[in-house]
Specification:
about 40% helix, about 110 residues, single chain, mainly alpha, about 0% strand
Amino acid sequence: MIAHIVKQLVPNYCLLCKEKTGNALALCSFCLEQLPWLTGPLCPNCAFPTTTATRCGQCLTKPPSFNHVECPLVYAKPIDNFIFQLKFTNKIIYAHILVLERKHTLSLFL
């Protein structure tokens, strides 16, 4: 009940366009859709884009010390700024956005 009252008093606004979001995420549905989502076939080890969903040449010649990477977003604008804000200004709100998974996020917040 308290959370509902606080949500009514302090609405969420989109971190990118400053519009009211109407959901629990600090991004509106339009800006969420416009994020640089990583799509297409990816290397199953490092998530590097490939033509087929097989290991990339780098992972074949010099296997990484990890087995799998989940990477839903490309390191590009505005993601680079989100990481900067989280890392150097301790704005935790960006951590919530950076762990998004497109398939779950779009169904939950649109």
